[in-house]
Design a protein that fits this description.
Layout: E1 7-8, E2 11-13, E3 19-24, E4 35-40, E5 45-47, E6 49-51, E7 54-59, H1 61-64, E8 72-80, E9 88-100
Parallel strand pairs: 1-9, 2-9
Antiparallel strand pairs: 3-7, 4-5, 4-8, 6-7, 8-9
């Protein structure tokens, strides 16, 4: 298959609890200027923090509790163009739905 296909997975959320995730790139450090974020179908965006080869999210429960069970999301990553321009290469890293244990 040619092209990029995002991985499919759900984000597990529990009311009253923070949501924390770290994803590591097997290929090593991400380029400076790389951005990663989660976009929810309702327009909510959770920005990740890029630390070397890892992206970390820590979402406080007050924010996480606003996402209902079954809402779609896309986890996106934006790599800066290495050719010196201001362009980015955008990819959907993961996609799926919110899953709640205690709805």
């Amino acid at each position: 298959m040619l092209g990029w296909v995002p991985k499919i997975d759900n984000i597990f959320l529990s009311f009253g609890q923070d949501w924390i995730l770290a994803r590591t790139r097997r290929g090593g450090a991400l380029n400076p200027g790389t951005e990663a974020f989660i976009e929810w179908a309702n327009g909510t965006r959770w920005d990740g923090v890029v630390l070397g080869d890892t992206v970390v999210w820590k979402v406080e429960s007050e924010q996480a509790d606003l996402i209902p069970h079954g809402m779609n999301f896309k986890m996106r990553i934006r790599y800066p163009d290495t050719g010196g321009s201001d362009e980015f290469a955008d990819f959907d890293w993961y996609e799926g739905k919110a899953q709640r244990r205690n709805t």
